[in-house]
Design goal:
This is Stage 0 sporulation protein A homolog. One of its GO terms (biological process) is phosphorelay signal transduction system. GO terms for molecular function: DNA-binding transcription factor activity; sequence-specific DNA binding. Residues 5-122 form the Response regulatory domain. By secondary structure, the chain is of the alpha/beta class. The protein has four domains: 4-133, Rossmann fold; 139-295, Alpha-Beta Plaits; 312-403; 412-512, Arc Repressor Mutant, subunit A (Orthogonal Bundle). It is built from 21 helices and ten strands. It has helices at 13-26, 39-49, 65-74, 90-98, 112-134, 137-145, 152-161, 196-202, 230-248, 267-284, 312-322, 325-341, 346-366, 385-403, 412-424, 431-438, 442-453, 457-475, 480-486, 492-503, 507-512; strands at residues 4-9, 30-36, 53-57, 80-85, 103-106, 169-176, 209-215, 218-223, 255-261, 291-295. Helix 11 (312-322) runs antiparallel to helix 12, helix 13 runs parallel beside helix 14 (385-403) and helix 16 crosses helix 17.
């Protein structure tokens, strides 16, 4: 523990000894670093040792205690002054207050209990100032927001330094990433990250912000503005949120979500209220783009649980198995209603959407269709529930259309062969290798393909490769020779020749047209 460094100044040696003994008897974090018998000696001592506290007798020869206190004030020294007097004179006390002394005590009233209490007060004040000079308002508020323990005296110091920290309002803003539910990779360049905090700080004065505090990927905005009525506060918060979204939007790709707390709060309430606001922000972020919500924390009643959620995975599977295009829209609307009513967190929604995505992929695999990522369907890029459901609507309609006229495979061995090819067609595989891997003859495998698929083994492998190449051409920036290698061709020239045979276009033409005029 750091010690409070003390100096005693008195023209009576006995008075100095008496005070020294009482301080040492307290046995606290206090150390006497010097004594002086007059004001001139004391001034030299103070300049040399720069103590934290000086106990100074008022009546001294050469330089009085009040004159010495004035020199300390004029030189802007950080030493706290405790004036000590044998006489209870109001005029001395008044002059001392004007000079900014921290305490005025009478010699005959100084006892171990009162001195101990005084030193404890001085140490707490000194310790608080040591901490607060090290940390800024921003760092202290950041610690409070994130649940770190901050001493009460430090909070009080900052409230005194910033009157608006007695009570203030908060608003949280978050830049939302796309909802991740598909495992398909993307080779498109990602947008450069945007420093939302930096943008907000540049607008700090314009928005009358006290501080901008990072919190789990979001940002907490503290501002101070009193309101005369509930309606005025509500109107201001809506306008304030609109302004924030308006100036962030040009710099931020994707969507923004904003939650404002309806009432003013104190520093002690800051951490739990930020946690509550962040939970609402997380749910709000997946409901719609550029969303805003006012959080009213006056009501302590728990929210009613929504009714039993509809089994969205079963709805999707039933929709696929029915294969009725006219039913797709209504089925997917039911899924959207269920997801919206579920009040999911972002991670919870992503888990449900991943289940739907895997169900779609599983259906395609059972129908011997290539995975979604090898088709011309756009890569999922949804920021909210409605956008995710729109993607599934398009994917389901596309999948049902693909199954029209599709040959139904009944042979278990052929199903195994098709699954094996889906996993290995990017390699240099042959009909013989596949047959041996599955434990039957190459001739038998060829017969199965002709009987149930009306295709040869090579024609089916070629179709798989071209389907995957189409995806790369439309959805990535990979070069044609890279795509050729990724789909299992030795040279880009041979790949381009086969691709044109299958589609009527070169790979470059197909990419330029965005996959349109596609035969598959």
């Amino acid at each position: 523990m750091k010690e409070l460094r003390l100096v005693i100044v008195d023209d009576e040696e006995l008075a100095i000894q008496n005070l020294e003994e009482q301080i040492e008897a307290i046995n606290g974090p206090y150390r006497i670093v010097g004594t002086a018998r007059n004001g001139v000696q004391a001034w030299e001592l103070l300049q040399k040792v720069k103590p934290d506290v000086a106990f100074i007798d008022i009546k001294m020869p050469v330089l009085t205690g009040l004159e010495l206190a004035k020199k300390i004030k004029d030189e802007h020294m950080k030493t706290e002054v405790v004036l000590v007097s044998a006489y209870q004179e109001f005029e001395y006390a008044k002059q001392g207050i004007e000079l900014g002394i921290c305490q005025y005590i009478l010699k005959h009233e100084v006892g171990s209990a009162s001195l101990s209490k005084l030193l404890e007060q001085l140490w707490n004040k000194w310790n608080t100032e040591q901490i607060t000079t090290t940390f800024s308002v921003q760092s202290i508020l950041g610690a409070i927001v994130n649940g770190a323990y901050v001493q009460s005296q430090i909070k009080e110091h900052f409230i005194k330094a910033k009157e608006e920290l007695k009570t203030f309002s908060i608003l949280m803003v978050q830049r939302n990433a796309p909802i991740h539910f598909a495992n398909s990779g993307s080779f498109l360049e990602q947008p450069s990250p945007v420093n939302v905090e930096e943008i907000l700080i540049r607008k700090k004065e314009e928005l009358h912000l006290i501080a901008v505090l990072p919190y789990h990927g979001a940002h907490v905005l503290l501002f101070h503005k009193p309101f005369e009525s509930y309606l005025l506060r509500m109107g201001f918060l809506q306008q304030y949120a609109d302004e924030i979204i308006a100036f962030l939007k040009p710099s931020v790709q994707g969507s923004l979500s904003v939650v404002a707390v309806m009432r003013e709060i104190t520093l002690d309430e800051l951490s739990p209220i930020v946690q509550a606001a962040y939970r609402e922000l997380d749910k709000l972020s997946v409901l719609k783009r550029d969303s805003f919500q006012i959080l009213n924390l006056k009501e302590d009643n728990p929210q009613k649980q929504a009714g039993s959620r509809m089994p969205v995975k079963e709805i999707l599977i039933h929709c696929l198995e029915e294969r009725k295009l006219e039913q797709v829209s209504s089925r997917l609307n039911r899924i959207q209603e269920s997801l919206t009513a579920g009040k999911y967190s972002r991670s919870g929604l992503e888990r449900v959407l991943k289940e739907l995505y895997e169900a779609l992929q599983g259906f395609r695999k059972r129908q011997n269709l290539p995975p979604v990522e090898y088709t011309v369907l756009k890569k999922p890029d949804a920021y909210c529930i409605s956008e995710a459901v729109d993607w599934f609507r398009e994917a389901v309609e596309f999948t049902i259309s693909e199954t029209e006229g599709l040959i139904h495979v009944t042979s278990k061995k052929l199903k195994e062969a098709l699954a094996y090819i889906q996993d290995h067609f990017t390699e240099s595989i042959t009909q013989q290798q596949v047959a041996e891997a599955l434990g039957f003859s190459s001739v038998y495998l060829g017969l199965l393909f002709r009987k149930e698929m009306q295709l040869s083994f090579l024609e089916y492998v070629t179709k798989c490769r071209i389907d995957k190449a189409k995806y790369y051409l439309v959805h990535t920036n990979k070069k044609i020779y890279e795509i050729s290698d990724h789909v299992g061709y030795m040279t880009s020239q041979y790949f381009s020749k086969i691709f044109k045979q299958q589609t009527g276009m070169t790979p470059a033409e197909y990419r330029e047209r965005g996959g349109k005029s596609d035969e598959y």
